[in-house]
Structures are given as C-alpha cells and as structure tokens.
Amino acid sequence: MLPYPQIDPVAVALGPLKVHWYGLMYLVGIGGAWWLASRRVAGFAPEWSREKLSDMVFWVALGVIVGGRLGYVLFYDLPAYLHDPSLILQLWKGGMSFHGGLLGVLLCSWIFARRNGKGFFELMDFIAPLVPIGLGAGRIGNFINAELWGKATDLPWAMIFPTDPQRLPRHPSQLYQFALEGVALFAILWIYSRKLRPTMAVSGLFLLCYGMFRFIVEFVRVPDAQLGYLAFGWLTMGQLLCLPMVLGGAGLMAWAYRRQSLHGVAR
C-alpha cells in the first residue's frame, strides 16, 4: 500500500482569502491550453492575432466552468442544489462535470466559430488536442482534494484517503484518470493531429477515446453516494453519459473518412 501524500487542499491562505489547489489546476489547464494553442495556431488560422486566440481561450474556459458546474448540478446532485442554490458558487469544494463542461465548450465554440468565420468542426478539431491538459490537471486537483476515489482493493498501490470514513485501501482512480484522460489522450490526439486529417476526425477521436477511458475507470471508481449505480448493479452516471460519446465519436470518424473518400481531405 502507498501512503497518501496528505497535501493541504489550500495552496495559499491570506487571512480570509484562501486559494485552493483545485482552482489552481483550472488555471494550469487553461494556461497550458492557451500556450499550446499559440504554438499550433499558425497552421489553423495564421490570420488570427494574439488577441483573437485569447478570445477563443476565454470562450472555451467559460464553457468549461459554467457548463461543468451546471452539468454537475443537473446530472449528479440536483436536489441538494435546489435546497441551497448558494452551493453552486462554491467551486473550491469540487463538483464539476466533464460532460457538462463538454456541452458548455460545444456551445461557446459554436458561438465563437460563427462570429469568426470558422466552421464548427474545424474549430473543434483545433481545440480537441488542447483539452487533455485541463483534464489531467483537473484530476490532480481531485487527488489533492482526496475526492472521487476508487473501490477497495489489495493492490500494492492502493491508498487510504483521509476523506474516506471507512479508512480502506482504495484504487487511486483520480491518478488512473490523470494517466488516461490527461497523458494518454493528449499523446493520441497530438500524434494523430500532426498529419492532415478530414474535418471531424480529430473531434471524433477525442470523443471516442475519452468515452472509452472514462467508461473503463468507472468500474473501479466509487459512484457518487447520492446516485449509486443506475442499472445492472454496475452502470454509473459517468458510464451512461459516456455511451453517446463513444457512439458519436465513432460515427464522426466514420463520416469524416467517408466524406474524404468521396470529396478528398477537407479542413
């Protein structure tokens, strides 16, 4: 068994002002995505200024934060937030939904693409390889918060999390997700997108891989207590939300390559 590192969730405390590591991880994700986008933008939109790129990152970040929070409220714990709406603003306590964030990004990207003369899927293919940076950083934030841990196990890398009332050795599922959704997904998308691909293919690969990675990890992750398992004694809300991602991603890739065979590579 590995010892949990016991990191204080508060990175900096200045009197009543507290800066949490969870919030800082969002800044790391947004900043990392902006830096990577600035390295890749010349091949996507060489006419874009630094300000235009910053505007795009702002819209995407807005979609992540607002969509992620509202998605968690709607998908995972609506009764609690209806009882006390002020909880919605307490982001430092966690409670963000990837799937809600994805919907927020799709909406904000659609608005930004229309305003700037870009095709929606053209823009999404550019954004998709940037997303794993934020996903990986967010999972590190979950690990520091000692939340979203996994099921009990006797594996040698199991950990006892301070937030676990049962004090059982558990899968560090946050680190599994960091490795898959952050590191592996970034590598796959980065390598795949280095060559010219038909429009929608990179977006489709993102949906397909994330959906599969998340679906797999959910088998060893404890579901949210207020929801439990939704069906068959194992299906979680996360898995249910990933199914349309896998199907949609596979469909987008198939459509993209069919269009390529009919019309040539489109970007």
Automatic annotation (TrEMBL):
Record membrane topology: Multi-pass membrane protein
Q: Does the keyword Aminoacyl-tRNA synthetase apply?
A: no
The record, for InterPro entries, names: Lgt
**Could you give a single Gene Ontology term from the biological process aspect?**
lipoprotein biosynthetic process
The record's gene field reads lgt
Location of this chain's protein in the cell: Cell membrane
Which molecular function term from Gene Ontology is one that the record holds?
Answer: phosphatidylglycerol-prolipoprotein diacylglyceryl transferase activity
Q: What do the Gene Ontology cellular component annotations say?
A: plasma membrane
- Protein name, please? Phosphatidylglycerol--prolipoprotein diacylglyceryl transferase
